[in-house]
Amino acid sequence: MRETGQLVDWNDERGFGFIRDARGERYFVHIKSIERITTRPFAGDRVNFEKGVDPQGRPRAIKVRILGANPAPSRQVRLREEPVANPRPFDMRPWLALVLTALLGYDLAMAAAPAWLGLAYLVMGALSFGLYAADKRYAQAGQWRIAEVTLHGVDLGFGIIGGLLGQSRLRHKTAKPGFALLTWCLACVQLLWLAGIAAGRITPEDLAVVANLFN
């Protein structure tokens, strides 16, 4: 028997929340138990669901349907409606990534930047590329996506080189004007940052302050 309730709490980053039914009882719900829709769940959504229990015997909502939401199309429908690809336009992303890499290399070679900064760009760049690759797979499979704020946050936190290469190589997130604009802004911030180090405008003492923020 299906129950009706409301999604009263939702953590989009972690993919779970709670539903309250008409009697006020709360049920845990995981994103895997929610039928796919074209948008992500929001606190306040009206839902219907079936009662279940988790391995510890606590109330859990399963087979959850968000009322009034449009279901996401199946992969077969998406592939059938996918337009014929146009010739790929010129993409500045890999060239900007190359400029940033060259500036970083110059800063490190001239001892204007500490070794930890190079390591940070390497590790976070690899992480950013991996997140774009994973989000691309999720999009193709019709699964829940990685939040855009997470992608931009990693790019800002020294992952921008990997993010630019991931967007360009995977052809992912390049057609969304708003997302692309913020990416260019983040890249410009990183460009000014590395250029400032090269020009001596940002001193080792300033970099030590940044390092302390991550300690």
Automatic annotation (TrEMBL):
PROSITE patterns annotated for this entry? CSD_2
Q: Which keywords has UniProt assigned to this entry? A: Membrane, Phosphoprotein, Transmembrane, Transmembrane helix
Q: Does the keyword Protease apply?
A: no
Q: Where are the transmembrane segments?
A: 116-134, 146-166, 178-199
Q: Does the keyword Transport apply?
A: no
Q: Output the SMART domains linked to this UniProt entry.
A: CSP
The name this protein goes by in its record: CSD domain-containing protein
